[in-house]
Structures are given as C-alpha cells and as structure tokens.
Amino acid sequence: MHIRSAVTPVADASSEGPDERMLAAVHDSALAIVPCEHAYMRDVFSPDFYARLLASMPARERFHDLRHKDAMRADGSSARLRMYLYPEQLWRLPAEQRAMWTAVSRTLRSGALQEAFKRKFRRSLEGRFGRSIDQLDFYPIPILIRDQPGYRIGIHADVPAKAITVQFYLPRDGAQRHLGTVFHHGRSGPDAERTVAMDFMPASGYAFAVVEKESWHSVRQTTEADGERVSIMLTYYVQDTPRAWIKRRWDRFRSFFGVGPKG
C-alpha cells in the first residue's frame, strides 16, 4: 500500500526573507505519526524569494562529491553533489549569490528554527534521550545538494549521531513530484512495501525525528528523464558528550578544506 502526501499551491507573492516564512511552515505543518513521526512542510519560501533562490544556484565547481556507497554510480562517479552552507564556505561565491545563501544559512542554523523542530518532535526526542527538549541542544549542518540521475538510497533509519533530519525541496515545478523521500513501515518484508511519500514540490520539505528501528526511509533510484534533483539537507546532530561536541566542530573545520563526513 502506497500513500502520497497532498500538496497545495504556494500561497502568495510576498518577497520576505526566509526566517519567518520557514518558521511558519514548521509551525503550520501537521505532525504525522505513521509510520513514524514526521512532518511535511509547504510554502517554506515566498514565491519571490524562491524564484531568486533558484536563480542564485552556485556553479557545479562549488560542489564536492559524496563518496558514499549508495551514491556511487557504476562508472565510479558520485550521484550526489554537496556544498556546505557554512558562512566560511559561502564567501567564495559571487556577491549576489553569497547574500542570498547567507540569508538562508543564517535561518537554517538559527536557534529559533531548531526550537521549532524540537517542539514539533517533542515526544520522539524526549522518548529517545530521556529528558526534556529544553535540555537538548543539537548541532545543525546545512548542505545544498544536487542529486544526479542514478541517485538512490536504500531503506535505512539514519545513524544515531543524528537527532532530526530535514530536507527542503528545490524543484522548478511539479514535474519531479514523484522523486520525494519515502517512509516505510519497516525495513523488509510486507512492512517495507507499506509507504508514505513526501511529494518533491517547489518550496516544500519534510522533517522527522531519528528513532532507531523506526524512522525507516528511502529514495527510489532516479533516471536521466528525471533530471537533477536539488534540495537543502539540514541535519541536527547529537552533541551530548565532549567527544561529540568536538567532532562536530572538527568536521566543520575539515569541510573548509573539502574534507567532509561520508554520510
């Protein structure tokens, strides 16, 4: 059984920045509990801002390959290209692009946005970590992604180092609707066939709390006809030990030199 999420048109033509719009999208999203806690967000960016964002897409040479087994193609190339949206990475961009993506980066890394997601997934997070969300502080890592034809990722629940996974979709129109992430009721057998799909629509996105053996999801393999699949991945990482706190910042330092985590 396959369920497809509903999508409504973008609401208005405001030219506001990303801050309030993105927060409103998180607050207004409905919390689904099947097959795991997740939310689908609409109107994440205003139409005017979204058009300018797509027009400010950085050039291919600004991205690096993700060397992960699920992203590798038969010819040895990677089907997932990434660019970290840290301020120290964005200064390399042309001035107009830098201004646009700096505004997005600031919102993605803001405490207000993290608080909105923590409150959205309070039950799952407090159940997993055994304490109030007010005592939880995660490290946000924002990445701009360009998935090439052939990209896929099998059913997985995300590693325990992740607390919340968010992805904002950036297609130009509704032609790629079928390329969204799919949630599964289980990793294998009949449960793996029972799914809920997140429509890959303009200025939309989804988020979920990472829960072991519960937050199963995948992306079906894309084709040449599908074209490039562009999105923003925002991952909130656990940093509840001195070692994890140091690792997050060490990884960020290394990313400045083009060296990043494999996953």
Strand order of the largest sheet: 2-3-11-8-13-6-5-4
Distance between the termini: 30 Å
Q: Which CATH C-level class is it? A: Mainly Beta
- Which secondary-structure class do the elements indicate? alpha+beta
Number of strands: 13
Described by the principal axes of the CA atoms, the overall outline is globular
Strand content: 15-25%
Helical coverage, percent range = 25-40%
Characterise this structure.
With about 260 residues, the protein is of the alpha+beta class. It has a single domain (about 20-255), classed as Jelly Rolls. Helix content is about 30%, strand content about 25%. It is built from 8 helices and 13 strands. It has helices at about 20-30, 45-55, 85-90, 95-110, 110-120, 120-130, 190-195, 240-255, and strands at about 1-5, 30, 40, 65, 80-85, 140-145, 155, 160-170, 180-185, 195, 205-210, 215-220, 230-235. The chain has an 8-stranded antiparallel beta sheet. The longest helix has 14 residues, at about 95-110. The model is unreliable at about 1-15 (pLDDT under 50).
